[in-house]
Amino acid sequence: MLRSRLQKYFLPILLILTAIGGVLVPQVAAMAQTPTSTDTPTPTALPKLQLDCPYPSLSNFSGSSFTFDIDIKYYNTDTKLFNINVTPISGWNITTTATDTGKEISSVQITGNGVDTPAIESIQVNLTPTGNLQPDPGPYNTTLTISSDTFTQKMNLVANVKPQFAFSLNENPGQPVTSPSIVVNSGGGTPYNFSIINSGSASIQNLTLSATTPAGWNIAFNPATVASVPAGQNQQITATITPPNTQNVDGDYTVTLKAANQTILTTMDVRVRVVTPGFPTWAVMAIIIAVVIVLAIAYHFLIQRRTKAGA
Q1: Looking at CB atoms within 10 Å, which of 39, 99, 239, 266 has the fewest?
Q2: CA angle (303 as vertex; 300, 305 as ends), nearest 5
């Protein structure tokens, strides 16, 4: 009897649970397989201003100009006027020009293409030493500012100045001579003065003096080495030139004076005329005077003798 009752109630309940499970289980499985979306929606691009310069730091020798190429990129849909400002540097002339026209400008108007595609205007910032001066070596910094009523962007630009080494040898710093010459005696050394002139923008260090000469010649320098010649200054050198003490050395020769360090070399050709010293002039004059005296005395005695003979 009890078994009959259990079967009477259990079977309907089982059928109901089975039906419910057939509906809910696939839904639960589907929910388990479908991940809840947590992706953030792609943000909408915003208007902006951007400056691009492929080479914001340039290097060149002292006295040279520096040119920076810059793209102004504007992301928006309207037309806007942008002011251009560059921080001044003492001793430098700074200009901004339009790349396409070369005209000097202080502002630029840009019409946007949208927030995804930039409208681009290219400009150049030019740094030139004032009055053709040669700035001291080192970095020179300036800041480019592009601004409007709502946008501002800045970029640092650096001009790295390298030292310009330049010097020359000259007989007289105040009076340039293209072909200096000197007359020397074959019997000894003759001093020849010249100068090392530094026309560069930095001191020249550790110069050594030397010379290229014909065989048998000797040239001694005083000083033989120069520790430093400041920019715009000169250093006097004395070269004692000694040709060989041999016969038939008279004539014109060329010697090359050199000043050099590990970085630079400069030379100067000097035309040298060698003469053999003759009999001393004072000795010649003494002989002439002696001859005149002897002749005068002889003439005097000759006159006296004739006078006595006539008497």
Answers
A1: 39
A2: 110
Tokens at 162, concatenated: 């390298």
Place of tokens 């681009």: 120
Q: Which residues lie across from 69 on neighbouring strands?
A: 124
Distances from the Cα of 209 to the Cα of 122, 193, 236, angstroms: 52, 13, 12
Q: Which residues contact 234 (CB under 8 A, 6 or more apart)?
A: 173, 195, 196, 197, 198
CB 198 within 8 A of CB 234: yes
Torsion angles phi and psi, residue 9, rounded to 5: -95, -30
pTM of the model: 0.58
> Three-state SS for 173?
coil
pLDDT of residue 178: 47
pLDDT in tens, 109-120: 999 999 999 999
Nearest to 163 by CA among 197, 207, 199, 195: 199
CA distance 166 to 42: 62
Alpha carbons 281 and 276: distance in angstroms, whole number:
14
Q: Would you give the end-to-end CA distance of the chain in angstroms?
A: 217
Which residue from 274, 275, 294, 297 is spatially nearest to 286, judged by alpha carbons?
294
Q: How many helices (H) and strands (E) does the chain have?
A: 2, 18
Strands 190-198 and 234-242: antiparallel
202-233: per-residue pLDDT in tens? 889 999 999 999 988 999 999 999 999 998 89
